[in-house]
Every structure is written in C-alpha cells, then in structure tokens.
Amino acid sequence: MSELGKLRWRCRRGMRELDVLLTRYVEERYRDAPAAHQDAFKQLLEAQDGTIYAYCFGRERPPTALLSSLIEQITLHPFDDRHSR
C-alpha cells in the first residue's frame, strides 16, 4: 500500500465529519504541503478523535502554531484553495 493509501486508511475515524475533513486534506492538499505540515498531519492522526474534532471545530486551540496552521489547512473549504499556498 502506498503512503497516501495508508494515510487515507488512517483518516477513517469514528466520526463522519472527521473522515470527510481528513480524507479531503489527504486528497487535495497533503502532496503539496510543506514537509512540516506532512509530519504534523501524521502526528495528528495519532490523537484521539475527540481532540482532533475539538481542534477542527474550534472547541479547543491547538497547542502549537504549526498545528494551528495545519488545522487551518484541513478545515479550508475547496473553494478557498487560493488561500492555501
């Protein structure tokens, strides 16, 4: 299985909202993301669903600027791509 295939599999969570956000990030932004974001994304996938949900839906502030920046990219809508670079 390719790296992207493994990431897609790891994006399957217990919450549909997270499945959609995380999978969309892998499909649309991961390949072109800076290495720091790619590494942070892999680490994020180690977190509990509740934590990821809290970060993505603004219930909790991510602990680092890097993670905040990554979450911003994950939660961008497809039509907001002009802001992702």
Task: Characterise this structure.
The chain is an all-alpha fold and 85 residues long. The chain has one domain (3-83): DNA polymerase, domain 1 (Orthogonal Bundle). 59% of the residues lie in helices and 0% in strands. The protein contains five helices and no strands. Helix 3 (35-44) packs across helix 5. The radius of gyration is 12 Å and the shape is globular. The model is unreliable at 79-85 (pLDDT under 50).
> Biggest sheet: strands, sense, closure?
none
The number of helical runs is: 5
Structural class: mainly alpha
Regarding quaternary structure, how should these chains be classified? single chain
| CATH architecture designation | Orthogonal Bundle
What is the overall pLDDT average?
Answer: 91
User: In the residues, how many domains can be counted?
Assistant: 1
Mind telling me the CATH class? Mainly Alpha
How many angstroms separate the termini?
Answer: 28 Å
**How helical, in percent, are the residues?**
55-70%
Radius of gyration: 12 Å
* CATH fold naming: DNA polymerase, domain 1
Would you report the number of β strands?
0
Question: Based on CA inertia axes, which overall geometry fits?
Answer: globular
Summarize the helix and strand pattern as letters. Answer: HHHHH
